[in-house]
Design brief:
The complex is a heterodimer of chains A (about 110) and B (about 110). Chain A contains no helices and 11 strands. With about 110 residues, chain A is mainly β. In chain A, strands 2, 4, 5, 6, 9, 10 and 11 form a 7-stranded mixed β-sheet that branches. A 4-stranded antiparallel β-sheet of chain A has the order 1-3-8-7, with no helix packed on it. Chain A starts with a strand and ends with a strand. Chain B is built from no helices and 12 strands. In chain B, the strands form 3 sheets. In chain B, strands 2, 5, 6, 10, 11 and 12 form a 6-stranded mixed β-sheet that branches. The termini of chain B are far apart. Classes of the chains: A mainly beta (about 110), B mainly beta (about 110). At the A-B interface, strand 5 and strand 10 of A face strand 6, strand 10 and strand 11 of B.
Chain lengths: ~110, ~110
Amino acid sequence: NAGVTQTPKFQVLKTGQSMTLQCAQDMNHNSMYWYRQDPGMGLRLIYYSASEGTTDKGEVPNGYNVSRLNKREFSLRLESAAPSQTSVYFCASSVGSGNYEQYFGPGTRLTVT
Amino acid sequence: GDSVTQMEGPVTLSEEAFLTINCTYTATGYPSLFWYVQYPGEGLQLLLKATKADDKGSNKGFEATYRKETTSFHLEKGSVQVSDSAVYFCAYMDSNYQLIWGAGTKLIIKP
């Protein structure tokens, strides 16, 4: 039981390049989330998926797109990376979108130069 | 607007010292409150939670009490260990079931 896995762990991009961050969970959770973590700030929600087949914007969605590929997988895409997107990205999942504990992956550290 | 305020870190303590990390929130109603912990190189994990006023959450020797009068949820531990060194995040769940996070407090415990 791996929980929430993310790939890659580290990535360096040049401005304007694109990439997809992958996330998968094996807990049969319905809801999945993408956050970014910046120094001195709390986690900020980028997008979430309350259930398979649905996605919704969070607090900071600009410059990102997501795909809920199936119940297990939820990917985050940067179409044209910018230095402001340098951050640590966390994927999380929960049983549902209500008052449930969120389980986090180990994170992806992304640097955009 | 809705927000969570935590004491700034890093907080540096000696082993076996008493720990308090302050957390206050601004929200409507009485949201569920959480403390998450992030150990070095890992993702966040739930440490404890409280879902209604006066509830006390506890886990691994840590405690926090939901104080609606002061809108606070301070984290305490009576005797910290080196293994408690981590970043601690306070959060609450808003009416849309989204977590609102504090900035995190880095805790360093020296042997």
